[in-house]
Design brief:
The chain is mostly helical and 288 residues long. The chain has twelve helices and four strands; from the N terminus they run ααααβαααβαβααααβ.
Length: 288
């Protein structure tokens, strides 16, 4: 991942987003692509897979590769390093468009919808707030937050911040990309939370975290304590990585992550004797 991120650190956000979408749409099974995802993020996973296949064929799943790549993207943008369980298997199919839309919370979601969406995946409010913190890096296009600018400016937006957004996104025909965090756009830190409290976040779904008493309290905690954010993010990241996970002789191991195997059954000769790993291993932490 270092070789991908050193020349273009913005790729980190694309890989993390790919991981989030994969977990939410069909569990952590490498079950998508999604039309809104960066092709370059998908290409990174395919390239890592190709290198692994050349030395250790039919052994490491695309789901594990994506989980580890997302973890590395976090670590290499100044986030915490932590261990995550491996042993995932890949889905035998890709999700369809309707499934994708039905499982992903939209950037216009309110707090009730966010909590309901996360709850349906076995996650709670304590997971929602740190995982939303991944918006501390990456880009958003004008179309994803234009409802906060037109026909009237959302009063929750800081006036100066809102004016800069209006200048960047003056009408619906302009759809440029804007940094999610205008202060430290390439650093995985807790700045997202202080930005939120200052009215300087882009999405309705970000601002909505201040509309629920529990999520608001957690936002305030993370704004004050970067360490607390990183610890809980690690825990919630691992929890998310275990949504509807396939192990053992379930699914298969793809040869190319973006292409389904012609033979949908695994060709691993030891599949019948394979013991699925324990996926509730607590994380361990390492500093940058």
């Amino acid at each position: 991942m270092k070789s991908f991120l050193t020349p273009n650190v913005s790729q980190a956000a694309g890989v993390i987003r790919l991981f989030f979408h994969d977990c939410f749409v069909q569990g952590e099974q490498q079950s998508i692509p999604n039309q809104t995802l960066r092709p370059s993020a998908l290409a990174i996973i395919d390239q890592i897979k190709a290198e692994l296949e050349s030395v250790c064929p039919n052994t490491v799943s695309c789901a594990d590769i994506l989980a580890l790549a997302a973890r590395e993207a976090i670590k290499q943008t100044n986030g915490s390093g932590f261990n995550i369980p491996t042993g995932r298997r890949d889905s035998l199919n890709f999700s369809n468009y309707a499934t994708v839309l039905g499982n992903l919370p939209a950037p216009t979601s309110n707090s009730s919808h966010l909590l309901s969406s996360f709850s349906s995946k076995g996650l709670n409010a304590i997971d929602l707030v740190p995982l939303s913190g991944a918006h501390t890096i990456g880009l958003a296009h004008c179309s994803s937050f234009s409802d906060r600018l037109r026909p009237t400016v959302d009063p929750r937006l800081n006036a100066t911040f809102a004016q800069s957004l209006v200048q960047t996104c003056p009408n619906s025909s302009i759809n440029v990309a804007v940094n999610m965090d205008t202060v430290n756009p390439d650093t995985f830190d807790n700045k997202y939370y202080s930005n939120m409290m200052n009215g300087e976040v882009l999405f309705d779904s970000d601002a909505a975290l201040l509309n629920d008493s529990l999520t608001q309290a957690t936002v305030e905690e993370f704004a004050a304590e970067n360490h607390d954010f990183h610890i809980q993010f690690s825990i919630s990241f691992i929890k998310m990585s275990m949504i509807e996970v396939l192990t053992g002789n379930q699914g298969n191991i793809r040869k190319v992550c973006s292409v389904l195997n012609t033979n949908t059954r695994s060709t691993i000769t030891t599949a019948d004797s394979y013991v699925a790993p324990e996926l509730d291993t607590p994380p361990s932490y390492s500093s940058m």
